[in-house]
Amino acid sequence: MSIQFKTIVELRAMLDSKQISAAELMQESLGLAKKT
Amino acid sequence: MNEEQALKKASAIDLDEKTTSNLSGIPLAQKDLFCTEGLRTTCSSKILSNFIPPYTATAVKNLEDAGSVTIGKTNMDEFAMGSSNETSFFGSVHNPWKKEYVPGGSSGGSAAAVAAGIVPAATGTDTGGSIRQPAAHCGITGLKPTYGRVSRWGMIAFASSLDQAGPLARTSEDCAILLNAMSGFDSKDTTSLNIEVPDFLENINKPINGIRIGIIKEFNLADLDSKVQERFEESKKTYEKLGARFVEVSLPNISASVPTYYSIAPAECSSNLSRFDGVRFGYRAENTDDLNDLYIKSRSEGFGDEVKRRILIGTYALSAGYYDAYYKKAQQVRRLIKEDFEHAFESVDLLMTPTSPNTAFKFGSKGTQNPVELYLEDLFTISSNLAGIPAISIPHGLVNSLPAGLQLIGNFLREDQLLNAAHIFQKNSDFHHLKPDLEESQ
Q1: Which chain A residues have a beta carbon less than 8 Å from that of B97?
Q2: With helix as H, strand as E and coil as C, how does B153-197 read?
Q3: Does residue B130 carry a catalytic annotation?
Q4: Which residue of A has its CA nearest to B141?
Q5: Where exactly are the structural domains of chain B?
Q6: Residue B243: what pLDDT?
Q7: Contact A9 B173 (CB under 8 A)
Q8: SS3 string of chain B?
Q9: What is d(CA B145, CA B168) in angstroms, rounded to the nearest whole number?
Q10: How far, rounded to the nearest angstrom, does the alpha carbon of residue B363 sit from its chain's CA centroid?
Q11: What is the pLDDT of residue B182?
Protein backbone atom coordinates (compact mmCIF):
# COMPACT_ATOMS: atom_id res chain seq x y z
CA MET A 1 0.00 0.00 0.00
CA SER A 2 1.45 3.38 -1.01
CA ILE A 3 2.12 5.91 1.68
CA GLN A 4 2.09 8.81 -0.77
CA PHE A 5 -0.46 11.57 0.04
CA LYS A 6 -1.37 9.94 3.36
CA THR A 7 -2.04 12.12 6.40
CA ILE A 8 -0.36 11.66 9.78
CA VAL A 9 -3.62 10.22 11.12
CA GLU A 10 -3.75 7.67 8.28
CA LEU A 11 -0.07 6.73 8.64
CA ARG A 12 -0.50 6.38 12.41
CA ALA A 13 -3.34 3.89 11.79
CA MET A 14 -1.15 1.95 9.32
CA LEU A 15 1.73 1.84 11.82
CA ASP A 16 -0.51 0.84 14.74
CA SER A 17 -2.16 -1.96 12.76
CA LYS A 18 1.28 -3.18 11.60
CA GLN A 19 0.37 -2.71 7.93
CA ILE A 20 3.73 -1.05 7.65
CA SER A 21 6.75 -0.68 9.91
CA ALA A 22 8.41 2.64 10.68
CA ALA A 23 11.50 1.49 8.76
CA GLU A 24 9.42 0.61 5.68
CA LEU A 25 7.58 3.92 5.94
CA MET A 26 10.90 5.76 6.06
CA GLN A 27 12.25 3.85 3.08
CA GLU A 28 9.15 4.71 1.04
CA SER A 29 9.26 8.36 2.03
CA LEU A 30 12.97 8.63 1.22
CA GLY A 31 12.30 6.84 -2.07
CA LEU A 32 9.61 9.37 -2.99
CA ALA A 33 11.94 12.22 -2.10
CA LYS A 34 14.67 10.84 -4.36
CA LYS A 35 12.22 10.18 -7.22
CA THR A 36 10.74 13.65 -7.07
CA MET B 1 18.57 14.07 2.94
CA ASN B 2 19.06 12.47 6.31
CA GLU B 3 18.80 8.88 5.08
CA GLU B 4 21.13 7.01 7.39
CA GLN B 5 19.93 8.64 10.61
CA ALA B 6 16.27 8.41 9.56
CA LEU B 7 16.47 4.67 8.87
CA LYS B 8 18.39 4.09 12.11
CA LYS B 9 15.81 5.94 14.20
CA ALA B 10 12.88 4.21 12.42
CA SER B 11 14.37 0.78 13.11
CA ALA B 12 14.76 1.67 16.79
CA ILE B 13 11.11 2.79 16.90
CA ASP B 14 10.04 -0.56 15.41
CA LEU B 15 11.77 -2.36 18.27
CA ASP B 16 10.15 -0.18 20.94
CA GLU B 17 6.79 -1.66 21.94
CA LYS B 18 6.03 1.17 24.38
CA THR B 19 5.56 3.87 21.74
CA THR B 20 2.34 5.85 22.20
CA SER B 21 2.95 9.23 20.56
CA ASN B 22 0.90 10.25 17.50
CA LEU B 23 4.14 11.21 15.81
CA SER B 24 6.18 8.13 16.56
CA GLY B 25 7.70 6.83 13.34
CA ILE B 26 6.19 9.59 11.20
CA PRO B 27 8.54 11.03 8.54
CA LEU B 28 8.85 14.81 8.47
CA ALA B 29 10.82 17.33 6.42
CA GLN B 30 12.30 20.42 8.04
CA LYS B 31 12.65 23.82 6.41
CA ASP B 32 16.36 24.45 5.90
CA LEU B 33 16.27 27.39 8.26
CA PHE B 34 16.06 25.24 11.38
CA CYS B 35 19.44 24.28 12.76
CA THR B 36 19.82 20.50 12.82
CA GLU B 37 22.77 19.00 14.67
CA GLY B 38 25.19 17.36 12.25
CA LEU B 39 22.92 18.02 9.27
CA ARG B 40 23.80 20.83 6.87
CA THR B 41 21.67 23.94 7.34
CA THR B 42 22.00 26.47 4.56
CA CYS B 43 18.99 28.84 4.68
CA SER B 44 19.25 28.31 0.89
CA SER B 45 22.14 30.77 0.84
CA LYS B 46 25.64 30.51 -0.55
CA ILE B 47 26.90 32.19 2.61
CA LEU B 48 25.77 29.19 4.72
CA SER B 49 26.27 26.53 2.06
CA ASN B 50 28.86 24.71 4.20
CA PHE B 51 27.32 25.26 7.64
CA ILE B 52 26.75 22.22 9.86
CA PRO B 53 25.17 23.29 13.16
CA PRO B 54 26.34 21.83 16.48
CA TYR B 55 22.77 21.88 17.89
CA THR B 56 19.14 21.34 16.87
CA ALA B 57 16.41 24.02 16.95
CA THR B 58 13.94 23.56 19.80
CA ALA B 59 10.92 23.29 17.46
CA VAL B 60 12.56 20.42 15.56
CA LYS B 61 13.88 18.80 18.73
CA ASN B 62 10.39 18.84 20.24
CA LEU B 63 9.03 17.08 17.15
CA GLU B 64 11.86 14.54 17.18
CA ASP B 65 11.43 13.94 20.92
CA ALA B 66 7.79 13.11 20.14
CA GLY B 67 9.07 10.32 17.88
CA SER B 68 8.93 11.89 14.43
CA VAL B 69 11.80 11.23 12.05
CA THR B 70 13.51 13.94 10.02
CA ILE B 71 14.11 12.62 6.50
CA GLY B 72 15.70 15.80 5.19
CA LYS B 73 15.72 19.55 4.80
CA THR B 74 13.64 21.56 2.34
CA ASN B 75 14.57 24.32 -0.07
CA MET B 76 13.31 27.85 0.57
CA ASP B 77 13.76 31.47 -0.43
CA GLU B 78 17.20 32.64 0.70
CA PHE B 79 16.99 33.55 4.40
CA ALA B 80 13.19 33.30 3.99
CA MET B 81 13.14 36.48 1.93
CA GLY B 82 10.73 35.87 -0.89
CA SER B 83 7.24 34.75 -1.82
CA SER B 84 8.02 32.49 -4.75
CA ASN B 85 11.06 30.37 -3.87
CA GLU B 86 12.93 32.02 -6.72
CA THR B 87 15.62 33.52 -4.46
CA SER B 88 17.17 30.20 -3.35
CA PHE B 89 20.88 29.84 -4.12
CA PHE B 90 20.19 26.18 -4.97
CA GLY B 91 17.51 26.89 -7.59
CA SER B 92 13.75 27.16 -7.45
CA VAL B 93 11.28 24.60 -6.17
CA HIS B 94 8.57 23.69 -8.68
CA ASN B 95 4.88 23.65 -7.85
CA PRO B 96 3.68 20.01 -7.89
CA TRP B 97 0.42 21.13 -9.52
CA LYS B 98 2.13 22.75 -12.52
CA LYS B 99 5.85 22.55 -12.96
CA GLU B 100 6.25 25.97 -14.58
CA TYR B 101 4.56 27.69 -11.62
CA VAL B 102 6.08 28.81 -8.32
CA PRO B 103 5.19 26.92 -5.12
CA GLY B 104 5.04 30.17 -3.12
CA GLY B 105 7.49 31.10 -0.44
CA SER B 106 9.41 31.23 1.56
CA SER B 107 8.55 27.73 2.87
CA GLY B 108 8.00 26.56 -0.72
CA GLY B 109 10.07 23.38 -0.43
CA SER B 110 8.14 22.23 2.64
CA ALA B 111 4.79 22.99 0.98
CA ALA B 112 5.78 21.22 -2.26
CA ALA B 113 7.07 18.15 -0.37
CA VAL B 114 3.73 17.79 1.43
CA ALA B 115 1.67 18.55 -1.70
CA ALA B 116 3.63 15.93 -3.67
CA GLY B 117 2.92 13.38 -0.94
CA ILE B 118 6.58 12.76 -0.06
CA VAL B 119 5.96 13.45 3.62
CA PRO B 120 2.66 13.92 5.46
CA ALA B 121 3.89 17.14 7.04
CA ALA B 122 6.79 19.54 7.28
CA THR B 123 7.93 22.50 9.28
CA GLY B 124 7.96 26.06 8.03
CA THR B 125 8.47 29.57 9.30
CA ASP B 126 6.25 32.56 8.72
CA THR B 127 7.52 36.15 8.92
CA GLY B 128 4.94 37.73 6.61
CA GLY B 129 3.03 34.77 5.18
CA SER B 130 5.80 32.25 4.47
CA ILE B 131 3.81 29.26 5.75
CA ARG B 132 0.32 30.28 4.63
CA GLN B 133 1.02 31.55 1.10
CA PRO B 134 2.97 28.44 -0.08
CA ALA B 135 0.37 26.25 1.64
CA ALA B 136 -2.30 28.06 -0.40
CA HIS B 137 -0.35 27.81 -3.67
CA CYS B 138 0.29 24.09 -3.16
CA GLY B 139 -3.21 23.12 -1.93
CA ILE B 140 -2.34 22.12 1.62
CA THR B 141 -2.93 23.41 5.17
CA GLY B 142 -0.47 25.73 6.92
CA LEU B 143 -0.62 27.32 10.35
CA LYS B 144 1.26 30.34 11.69
CA PRO B 145 0.93 30.16 15.47
CA THR B 146 0.81 33.08 17.91
CA TYR B 147 4.19 34.81 18.27
CA GLY B 148 5.94 33.12 21.19
CA ARG B 149 3.91 29.89 21.03
CA VAL B 150 6.78 27.97 19.38
CA SER B 151 10.39 28.59 20.35
CA ARG B 152 12.53 30.46 17.84
CA TRP B 153 15.76 29.10 19.34
CA GLY B 154 17.83 27.50 16.60
CA MET B 155 15.83 29.15 13.83
CA ILE B 156 18.12 31.31 11.73
CA ALA B 157 16.64 34.76 12.29
CA PHE B 158 15.25 36.95 9.53
CA ALA B 159 13.09 39.47 11.44
CA SER B 160 13.07 38.44 15.08
CA SER B 161 9.90 40.27 16.13
CA LEU B 162 7.90 38.68 13.29
CA ASP B 163 9.38 35.18 12.72
CA GLN B 164 7.33 32.23 13.94
CA ALA B 165 7.65 28.50 13.27
CA GLY B 166 4.64 26.38 12.39
CA PRO B 167 3.39 23.25 10.64
CA LEU B 168 2.42 22.50 7.04
CA ALA B 169 0.30 19.39 6.54
CA ARG B 170 -2.58 18.03 4.50
CA THR B 171 -5.20 18.71 7.17
CA SER B 172 -5.99 20.90 10.13
CA GLU B 173 -6.06 17.80 12.35
CA ASP B 174 -2.47 16.98 11.39
CA CYS B 175 -1.46 20.60 12.06
CA ALA B 176 -2.95 20.23 15.55
CA ILE B 177 -0.87 17.08 16.16
CA LEU B 178 2.29 18.91 15.10
CA LEU B 179 1.49 22.05 17.06
CA ASN B 180 0.95 19.96 20.21
CA ALA B 181 4.52 18.73 19.89
CA MET B 182 6.19 21.94 18.68
CA SER B 183 4.72 24.31 21.29
CA GLY B 184 5.92 25.12 24.76
CA PHE B 185 8.06 27.41 26.84
CA ASP B 186 11.76 27.50 26.06
CA SER B 187 14.07 29.40 28.39
CA LYS B 188 16.56 29.74 25.52
CA ASP B 189 14.15 32.03 23.64
CA THR B 190 13.44 35.26 25.55
CA THR B 191 10.21 35.80 23.60
CA SER B 192 8.88 32.29 24.33
CA LEU B 193 5.52 32.40 26.17
CA ASN B 194 5.65 30.76 29.57
CA ILE B 195 2.06 29.53 29.58
CA GLU B 196 0.35 26.17 29.64
CA VAL B 197 -0.12 24.65 26.18
CA PRO B 198 -3.62 23.29 25.57
CA ASP B 199 -4.26 20.02 23.73
CA PHE B 200 -5.10 21.35 20.26
CA LEU B 201 -6.93 18.12 19.37
CA GLU B 202 -9.28 18.30 22.34
CA ASN B 203 -11.94 20.62 20.85
CA ILE B 204 -11.16 20.20 17.17
CA ASN B 205 -14.48 18.44 16.48
CA LYS B 206 -16.63 20.93 18.35
CA PRO B 207 -19.60 22.21 16.27
CA ILE B 208 -19.07 25.77 15.06
CA ASN B 209 -22.67 26.92 14.91
CA GLY B 210 -22.96 30.44 16.27
CA ILE B 211 -19.34 31.32 15.52
CA ARG B 212 -18.90 34.94 14.37
CA ILE B 213 -16.57 35.46 11.42
CA GLY B 214 -15.44 38.96 10.45
CA ILE B 215 -14.90 40.14 6.89
CA ILE B 216 -12.42 43.01 6.78
CA LYS B 217 -14.05 46.00 5.11
CA GLU B 218 -10.75 47.58 4.05
CA PHE B 219 -9.74 44.57 1.94
CA ASN B 220 -11.67 45.33 -1.21
CA LEU B 221 -12.22 41.80 -2.47
CA ALA B 222 -14.06 43.13 -5.52
CA ASP B 223 -10.63 44.09 -6.92
CA LEU B 224 -9.50 40.46 -6.95
CA ASP B 225 -9.65 38.00 -9.83
CA SER B 226 -13.32 37.05 -10.25
CA LYS B 227 -12.60 33.33 -9.80
CA VAL B 228 -10.68 33.94 -6.54
CA GLN B 229 -13.68 35.99 -5.37
CA GLU B 230 -16.05 33.23 -6.42
CA ARG B 231 -14.17 30.65 -4.35
CA PHE B 232 -14.23 32.98 -1.36
CA GLU B 233 -18.01 33.46 -1.65
CA GLU B 234 -18.51 29.68 -1.92
CA SER B 235 -16.49 29.14 1.25
CA LYS B 236 -18.55 31.78 3.04
CA LYS B 237 -21.67 29.84 2.06
CA THR B 238 -20.14 26.61 3.40
CA TYR B 239 -19.44 28.27 6.73
CA GLU B 240 -22.94 29.76 6.81
CA LYS B 241 -24.41 26.29 6.30
CA LEU B 242 -22.29 25.13 9.25
CA GLY B 243 -23.87 27.82 11.42
CA ALA B 244 -21.34 30.64 11.17
CA ARG B 245 -22.51 34.25 11.10
CA PHE B 246 -20.61 36.81 9.02
CA VAL B 247 -20.03 40.35 10.25
CA GLU B 248 -18.27 43.19 8.45
CA VAL B 249 -15.50 44.68 10.60
CA SER B 250 -13.27 47.68 10.10
CA LEU B 251 -9.50 47.65 10.66
CA PRO B 252 -8.75 51.26 9.71
CA ASN B 253 -4.96 50.95 9.70
CA ILE B 254 -4.62 47.61 7.93
CA SER B 255 -3.89 49.24 4.56
CA ALA B 256 -0.57 50.38 6.08
CA SER B 257 0.49 46.76 6.76
CA VAL B 258 2.69 46.25 3.69
CA PRO B 259 4.76 49.48 4.04
CA THR B 260 4.97 48.96 7.82
CA TYR B 261 6.22 45.41 7.35
CA TYR B 262 8.74 46.46 4.69
CA SER B 263 10.22 49.00 7.10
CA ILE B 264 10.41 46.71 10.14
CA ALA B 265 11.41 43.40 8.52
CA PRO B 266 14.39 44.73 6.50
CA ALA B 267 15.59 46.72 9.55
CA GLU B 268 15.64 43.59 11.69
CA CYS B 269 17.13 41.57 8.82
CA SER B 270 20.01 44.03 8.38
CA SER B 271 20.82 43.65 12.06
CA ASN B 272 20.41 39.84 12.18
CA LEU B 273 22.42 39.19 9.04
CA SER B 274 25.36 41.31 10.17
CA ARG B 275 26.72 38.15 11.87
CA PHE B 276 27.48 36.58 8.49
CA ASP B 277 30.87 38.16 7.95
CA GLY B 278 32.99 35.33 6.58
CA VAL B 279 34.90 34.99 9.85
CA ARG B 280 32.96 32.90 12.35
CA PHE B 281 31.12 30.48 10.06
CA GLY B 282 29.82 30.09 6.55
CA TYR B 283 31.28 31.18 3.24
CA ARG B 284 34.58 33.06 3.25
CA ALA B 285 35.87 34.89 0.18
CA GLU B 286 39.38 34.12 -1.01
CA ASN B 287 42.16 36.52 -2.04
CA THR B 288 41.24 39.36 0.26
CA ASP B 289 43.53 42.28 1.12
CA ASP B 290 42.56 42.89 4.75
CA LEU B 291 39.77 42.24 7.26
CA ASN B 292 37.48 44.92 5.80
CA ASP B 293 37.97 43.48 2.32
CA LEU B 294 37.18 40.01 3.72
CA TYR B 295 33.87 41.27 5.12
CA ILE B 296 32.94 43.06 1.92
CA LYS B 297 33.85 40.25 -0.46
CA SER B 298 32.38 37.46 1.69
CA ARG B 299 29.06 39.27 2.02
CA SER B 300 28.98 40.50 -1.58
CA GLU B 301 29.67 37.01 -2.93
CA GLY B 302 27.68 35.13 -0.28
CA PHE B 303 24.31 36.90 -0.33
CA GLY B 304 21.86 36.94 -3.23
CA ASP B 305 20.26 40.06 -4.71
CA GLU B 306 17.01 40.04 -2.70
CA VAL B 307 18.86 39.61 0.60
CA LYS B 308 21.24 42.44 -0.31
CA ARG B 309 18.28 44.66 -1.24
CA ARG B 310 16.65 44.11 2.14
CA ILE B 311 19.90 44.62 4.06
CA LEU B 312 20.39 47.95 2.26
CA ILE B 313 16.80 49.07 2.92
CA GLY B 314 17.06 48.01 6.56
CA THR B 315 20.43 49.63 7.14
CA TYR B 316 19.05 52.86 5.68
CA ALA B 317 15.90 52.67 7.85
CA LEU B 318 18.00 52.20 10.97
CA SER B 319 20.61 54.82 10.19
CA ALA B 320 21.01 57.96 12.30
CA GLY B 321 18.67 60.66 11.06
CA TYR B 322 16.21 58.19 9.49
CA TYR B 323 15.47 55.87 12.43
CA ASP B 324 12.61 58.06 13.73
CA ALA B 325 11.16 58.59 10.26
CA TYR B 326 11.07 54.92 9.29
CA TYR B 327 11.66 52.26 11.97
CA LYS B 328 10.13 54.16 14.89
CA LYS B 329 7.18 55.33 12.80
CA ALA B 330 6.61 51.79 11.51
CA GLN B 331 6.59 50.45 15.07
CA GLN B 332 3.98 53.07 16.00
CA VAL B 333 1.78 52.07 13.05
CA ARG B 334 2.30 48.42 14.01
CA ARG B 335 0.81 49.20 17.43
CA LEU B 336 -2.23 50.76 15.73
CA ILE B 337 -2.71 47.67 13.55
CA LYS B 338 -2.48 45.43 16.64
CA GLU B 339 -5.10 47.59 18.38
CA ASP B 340 -7.36 47.34 15.32
CA PHE B 341 -7.27 43.55 15.65
CA GLU B 342 -7.94 43.72 19.40
CA HIS B 343 -10.96 45.90 18.70
CA ALA B 344 -12.22 43.57 15.93
CA PHE B 345 -11.96 40.51 18.18
CA GLU B 346 -14.32 42.17 20.64
CA SER B 347 -17.15 41.49 18.16
CA VAL B 348 -15.97 38.42 16.19
CA ASP B 349 -14.27 35.08 16.91
CA LEU B 350 -12.31 34.82 13.66
CA LEU B 351 -11.52 36.86 10.58
CA MET B 352 -11.60 35.43 7.06
CA THR B 353 -9.75 36.51 3.89
CA PRO B 354 -8.32 34.80 0.84
CA THR B 355 -4.75 33.74 1.74
CA SER B 356 -3.32 35.32 -1.37
CA PRO B 357 -4.72 37.77 -3.94
CA ASN B 358 -4.11 35.14 -6.64
CA THR B 359 -3.10 31.54 -7.19
CA ALA B 360 0.48 30.50 -8.03
CA PHE B 361 2.12 32.37 -10.90
CA LYS B 362 4.69 31.40 -13.52
CA PHE B 363 8.40 31.60 -12.75
CA GLY B 364 9.84 34.98 -13.68
CA SER B 365 6.44 36.58 -14.18
CA LYS B 366 6.42 38.76 -11.06
CA GLY B 367 8.86 41.06 -9.34
CA THR B 368 11.61 40.94 -11.92
CA GLN B 369 11.27 44.65 -12.79
CA ASN B 370 9.55 45.80 -9.61
CA PRO B 371 10.01 43.82 -6.36
CA VAL B 372 6.90 45.49 -4.87
CA GLU B 373 4.79 43.26 -7.17
CA LEU B 374 6.04 40.29 -5.17
CA TYR B 375 5.75 42.08 -1.82
CA LEU B 376 2.01 42.54 -2.52
CA GLU B 377 1.65 38.74 -2.58
CA ASP B 378 1.59 39.00 1.22
CA LEU B 379 -1.16 41.62 1.32
CA PHE B 380 -3.56 39.43 3.36
CA THR B 381 -1.00 37.61 5.49
CA ILE B 382 1.40 40.29 6.75
CA SER B 383 -0.94 41.95 9.25
CA SER B 384 -1.21 38.90 11.52
CA ASN B 385 2.59 38.81 11.82
CA LEU B 386 2.62 42.48 12.77
CA ALA B 387 -0.04 41.80 15.41
CA GLY B 388 1.55 38.51 16.58
CA ILE B 389 -1.73 36.60 16.22
CA PRO B 390 -2.32 33.13 14.73
CA ALA B 391 -3.66 32.41 11.25
CA ILE B 392 -4.23 29.34 9.11
CA SER B 393 -4.55 28.71 5.38
CA ILE B 394 -6.72 25.86 4.16
CA PRO B 395 -7.32 24.74 0.58
CA HIS B 396 -10.73 25.74 -0.78
CA GLY B 397 -10.77 24.64 -4.37
CA LEU B 398 -9.04 25.17 -7.68
CA VAL B 399 -8.87 28.25 -9.86
CA ASN B 400 -7.66 27.50 -13.39
CA SER B 401 -6.40 24.09 -12.17
CA LEU B 402 -4.30 25.63 -9.39
CA PRO B 403 -5.15 25.57 -5.67
CA ALA B 404 -6.57 28.60 -3.88
CA GLY B 405 -6.22 29.18 -0.14
CA LEU B 406 -8.67 30.48 2.43
CA GLN B 407 -7.19 32.27 5.44
CA LEU B 408 -8.71 32.31 8.92
CA ILE B 409 -7.15 34.69 11.45
CA GLY B 410 -7.62 34.09 15.17
CA ASN B 411 -7.27 36.07 18.34
CA PHE B 412 -4.06 35.92 20.42
CA LEU B 413 -3.40 32.29 21.54
CA ARG B 414 -6.63 31.02 19.95
CA GLU B 415 -5.09 28.45 17.63
CA ASP B 416 -7.69 26.05 19.07
CA GLN B 417 -10.51 28.07 17.45
CA LEU B 418 -8.66 28.27 14.14
CA LEU B 419 -7.93 24.55 14.04
CA ASN B 420 -11.52 23.76 15.04
CA ALA B 421 -13.06 26.01 12.34
CA ALA B 422 -10.63 24.68 9.73
CA HIS B 423 -11.25 21.05 10.71
CA ILE B 424 -15.04 21.40 10.55
CA PHE B 425 -14.69 23.00 7.09
CA GLN B 426 -12.50 20.09 5.99
CA LYS B 427 -14.97 17.53 7.38
CA ASN B 428 -17.59 19.14 5.16
CA SER B 429 -15.53 19.59 2.00
CA ASP B 430 -13.12 17.60 -0.15
CA PHE B 431 -10.64 20.28 -1.21
CA HIS B 432 -7.90 18.95 1.10
CA HIS B 433 -8.21 15.56 -0.62
CA LEU B 434 -7.35 17.00 -4.05
CA LYS B 435 -3.97 15.80 -5.31
CA PRO B 436 -1.75 17.04 -8.11
CA ASP B 437 -1.23 14.76 -11.08
CA LEU B 438 2.54 14.50 -10.78
CA GLU B 439 2.98 12.86 -14.17
CA GLU B 440 0.94 15.60 -15.85
CA SER B 441 2.77 18.43 -14.02
CA GLN B 442 6.13 17.23 -15.33
Answers
A1: none
A2: CCECCCCCCCCCEEEEECCHHHHHHHHHHHECCCCCCCCCCCCCC
A3: yes
A4: A7
A5: 3-8+27-258+327-441
A6: 98
A7: yes
A8: CCHHHHHHHHHHHHHCCCCCCCCCCCEEEEECCECECCECCCCCCHHHCCCCCCCCCHHHHHHHHCCCEEEEEECCCHHHCCCCCCCCCCCCCCECCECCECCCCCCHHHHHHHHCCCCCEEEEECCCCCCHHHHHHHCCEEEECCCCCECCCCECCCCCCCCCEEEEECCHHHHHHHHHHHECCCCCCCCCCCCCCCCCCCCCCCCCCCCEEEEECCCCHHHCCHHHHHHHHHHHHHHHHCCCEEEEECCCCHHHHHHHHHHHHHHHHHHHHHHCCCCCCCCCCCCCCCHHHHHHHHHHHHCCHHHHHHHHHHHHHHCCCCCHHHHHHHHHHHHHHHHHHHHHCCCCCEEEEECCCCCCCECCCCCCCCCHHHHHHHCCCHHHHHHCCCEEEEEEEEECCEEEEEEEEECCCCHHHHHHHHHHHHHCCCHHHCCCCHHHHC
A9: 11
A10: 20
A11: 98
Predicted confidence at residue B441, as pLDDT, reads 64
Give the per-residue pLDDT at A1. 67
- Among the listed residues B45, B83, B92, B106, the single catalytic one is B106
Q: Across the interface, which of A11, A26, A36 has its CB nearest the CB of B120? A: A11
| Domain B3-8+27-258+327-441 classification at class level | alpha beta
| Burial call B86-101: b when 16+ CB within 10 Å, e when fewer | bbbbeebbbbbbbeeb
What are the average pLDDT values for consecutive 10-residue runs of chain B, which has 442 residues?
Answer: 96 85 97 98 97 97 98 98 95 97 97 98 98 98 98 97 98 98 98 97 97 95 90 98 98 96 96 94 93 97 96 94 92 98 98 96 86 83 98 97 98 98 98 91 62
Catalytic residue among B44, B110, B130, B356: B130
- Smallest Cβ–Cβ distance between B118 and the set A9, A23, A33 belongs to A33
Report the alpha-carbon distance of residue B349 to residue B345 in Å, rounded: 6
Q: Which of B7, B13, B169 sits opposite A8 (nearest CB)?
A: B169
Taking only the tens place, the pLDDT of each residue in B287-314 is 999 999 999 999 999 999 999 999 999 9
Enter the pTM of the model: 0.97
Q: Give which of B385, B136, B379, B356 is closest to B265, Cα–Cα.
A: B385
Q: Is A30 helix (H, G, I), strand (E, B) or coil?
A: helix
Q: What pLDDT is recorded for position B211? A: 98
